[in-house]
Amino acid sequence: MKKAASTVVLLLLFGCAQPMPAPPAVAPPVVDLKAQISANEAAWAAAANRGDAAALAAMYTDTATLLPPGADMQKGRAAIEKTFGSIGHSGVRNYSLTTLDVAQLGPDTVQEIGQFSLDAPGPKKKWVKVYGKYVSIWKLVDGKWLLDVDTWNMNK
Predict the structure, then answer these.
(1) DSSP codes joined into one string, 19-31
(2) pTM of the full structure
(3) Using an 8 Å Cβ cutoff, are 138 and 108 in contact?
(4) Cα 5 from chain centroid?
(5) How far apart are CA 138 and CA 32, in angstroms?
(6) What is the DSSP string of the chain?
(7) Residue 34 near residue 102 (C-beta atoms within 8 A)
(8) Confidence (pLDDT) at 125
(9) Which residues contact residue 87 at a Cβ distance below 8 angstroms, ignoring those fewer than 6 apart?
(10) What would the pLDDT profile of 5-22 be if each residue is shown by its tens digit?
(11) Domain limits at 141?
């Protein structure tokens, strides 16, 4: 009987016990992803305007995919560097990129939508202003946002 009474008392004590309060939620650090991506795009444009294909390729993940308009898909940094080397040798200059929208797709993935302009050699040695848009997927690699998928096309 003593055993049964002790069990009842323990059950009553546990039944009346309040649950432990949950630890206070820790707010995630506030990160302005659009500002970070815009800064990366400014660095990209600066490297492109210098004609620095190696610096451009370094802004992509090791396994990045480049989808240039009117050309084959390029996979990996070496192919991306070669592509940007060719574009640089074509005379394209005065790149300007504007980040319009950034959406976080996961803890290490961001989608960016933007617009660009550049000057390209045109007929009769005249320069043509080209306008277009782009979509890029960025991956967070070792604390740094790198391009993982990059595609663009011209408006006209």
Answers:
(1) PPPPPPPPPPPP-
(2) 0.79
(3) no
(4) 65
(5) 14
(6) -HHHHHHHHHHHHHHHPPPPPPPPPPPPPP--HHHHHHHHHHHHHHHHHHT-HHHHHTTEEEEEEEE-TTS--EESHHHHHHHHHHHHHTT-EEEEEEEEEEEEEETTEEEEEEEEEEEEE-GGG-EEEEEEEEEEEEEEETTEEEEEEEEEEE--
(7) yes
(8) 86
(9) none
(10) 444 443 444 444 455 555
(11) 29-154
Number of domains in the chain: 1
Domain at 142, CATH number: 3.10.450.50
Rounded Cα distance, 61 and 145, in Å: 9
Q: Which residues pair with 106 in a beta bridge?
A: 109
Distances, alpha carbon 98 to alpha carbons 67, 101, 116, 133, in Å: 19, 9, 6, 9
